[in-house]
């Protein structure tokens, strides 16, 4: 049974930081590209960051470059998103995503809420 379980969201003041985690199980983690997406109220889900299966390559949305860092620990089957210098417009539900490197099968987590407000 495939599971992606996000954690680490919460309420934070502008300029603050959070570290999101996504614990994966039920598939061979190192065979999957991992990503973080977010969806704000009334908006479409958007890609935030992706990381290759062994972590050598990363890519970010322009809106988060320099503030967000994606990383993974294949020994712990976990992907992280370090979020710094948070802005109110970063408020959204953040979702973990896995895409199979060979066959492209896709899995989603249930999401974790990040709210940036003073």
Write the layout of secondary structure elements.
Elements: E1 3-7, E2 10-12, E3 18-25, E4 32-39, E5 46-51, E6 58-60, E7 68-73, E8 78-83, E9 92-100, E10 106-108, E11 112-116
Parallel strand pairs: 2-11
Antiparallel strand pairs: 1-3, 3-8, 4-5, 4-9, 5-6, 7-8, 9-10, 9-11
Description:
The chain is mostly beta strands and 118 residues long. 0% of the residues lie in helices and 53% in strands. The protein contains no helices and 11 strands. Strands 2, 4, 5, 6, 9, 10 and 11 form a 7-stranded mixed β-sheet that branches. A hairpin with a 6-residue loop joins strand 5 and strand 6. The protein is globular. The mean pLDDT is 96.
Number of helices: 0
Classification by helices and strands: mainly beta
Radius of gyration: 13 Å
The major pleated sheet works out as:
7 strands, mixed
Summary tags:
seven-stranded mixed beta sheet; 11 strands; four-stranded antiparallel beta sheet
Overview in brief:
With 118 residues, the protein is mostly beta strands.
